[in-house]
Amino acid sequence: MKWRTHEADIQVTAEAGRLGLDVSIISSPPVLAEATEAARQVLTKSDRPTALFCFADSIAYGAYAAARELGLRIPDDLSVSGYDGHPMSALLTPALTTMDWNVDRIIRAAVRLILSAIEEKPYRRRTVQPPRLCERGSTGRPG
What we know:
The chain has about 140 residues and is α/β, with parallel strands linked by helices. The chain has helices at about 5-20, 30-45, 55-70, 105-120; strands at about 50-55, 80-85, 95-100, 130-135. It contains four helices and four strands.
C-alpha cells in the first residue's frame, strides 16, 4: 500500500525548490514501530535534518520516539510537524505542531453530496478544504 501519492511528492519537491530548501522524501506507514524506525534511519545520518514534516500525526509520533531514543530534544535539536490535527497530538510534550484539515466540514460536504444524489438533484459544487496550521511547541528555528 502506498502511503502518499506521487503527486504529493511532486508538490513537496516543487515547493521546497521555490523556498530554497533541501528536502528528502521518505516513506513510512502510519504505524508507530515502522514510523519510529524510518525516523531513526533519517536521524542517524551524518547530514541529519533539522526538521521533519510528517504526512500524518501518527508518523510524527514515531519521529518523537526516535528523537527520544537518540537523545534529541524537540524543538531545540529537531522540529517535528504532522498532518491530521489528531486530538492526541496536543497531549505530547511538547505539543505537536500539525495541520488540521477540518474533518467536520469535509463530512458535512460529503453528506450534502450524498443527499443530493439520493434526491436526484445535481450538486456539482467543488469543495475545497484548506488545512489550518495548529502551531504548537514542536517547531522552532534550527539550532
